[in-house]
Amino acid sequence: MRIGVALPTDYYKQLTPDVNPVDYLLDQARKLAELGVPAVWLTQRFDYDALAVAALIGRELPDITVGTAIVPIHPRHPNALAMQAQTAQAASGGRFELGLGLSLPEIAAGYGNTHPRIRYLREYLTALRELLHTGAVDYTGETLLAKSPTPSMMPTLHSPVPILLATSGSLTLRVAAELADGALPLLTGPNTLADFAIPTLARHAAAAGRPTPRVIGMVGGVVTADVAGARDRAAQQMDRYGEMPAYRALLDRENISDPVELAVIGDEQTMADAVARYAEAGADELIFALTALGSARDEERTWALLGELSKTRSDSPDCPG
């Protein structure tokens, strides 16, 4: 089971006038690769562009997978996103994976998009998939128009860029099953993954005559002795999700009251046990975020452990996932 880390981690602490954000992210990715972490994932913010940084990382570091987790589909048109994704794929020699998802409603409205969210998502992925698989699109939907004036497939690509969709409930899981290559279930614990997310994906994929998409679990966590302090910092970043209806429903399915209960905070065995639970639940891959909840030394311990766990689980034929 491949285990990756989502960047940036302590970006807010490091963002000063004398720090180049792109250099900083490249340095973090390089250190992760040195510690044996096989996959680096870029989170989109409102300053740097995640796909551009992913292309640079893929070009600089030839032995890792690089992806986005996640890029909101607003405000990028499918034609523009396809060009960016293919560029990152070419730069990385075929090791790029495109994780995308819906923006929050208020963010989408800020870009002038007030279409029904799931309908727009379906039409967006339909057009994007055509572009990435055939290099051309001629699509007219209820919420989206996408046409390619000339063929747009890069001749250097050996396979289409994998599309991974962030999911948060039944509707997005169905879209992932029918139109994506993988699912990134957000705020989804191992019990919910096993009992709800994966069966839902499998059911809809079978109905559509497609294989079940890969499942890439996402979890926050750090190896640290300062459990209380790390939990407080995690709560500051995670608590707001407990108030959002889609995520509240997932927490209720997991039978937990607070999003911070999903964070993996403790010693090495605590993290190894959590990785095993997600693997047993059926996750094909796992992405760790919020690894800077402790000290810099804690983060390095976390990355080193994730590198070891990824190698151990990949080498063992008996490991789930």
How would you describe this structure to a colleague?
- There is one protein chain.
- The protein is an alpha/beta fold.
- Helix content is 47%, strand content 18%.
- The chain has helices at 11-14, 21-34, 50-60, 78-91, 105-110, 117-134, 170-179, 190-207, 227-238, 245-254, 268-281, 296-315, and strands spanning 2-7, 39-42, 65-72, 96-101, 138-140, 145-147, 163-167, 182-185, 214-223, 264-266, 285-289.
- An eight-stranded parallel β-barrel has the order 1-2-3-4-7-8-9-11, surrounded by seven helices.
- Strand 7, helix 7 (170-179) and strand 8 form a beta-alpha-beta unit.
- Helix 7 (170-179) packs across helix 8 (190-207), helix 8 (190-207) runs parallel beside helix 11 and helix 11 (268-281) packs across helix 12 (296-315).
- The longest helix has 20 residues, at 296-315.
- It is globular, with a radius of gyration of 19 Å.
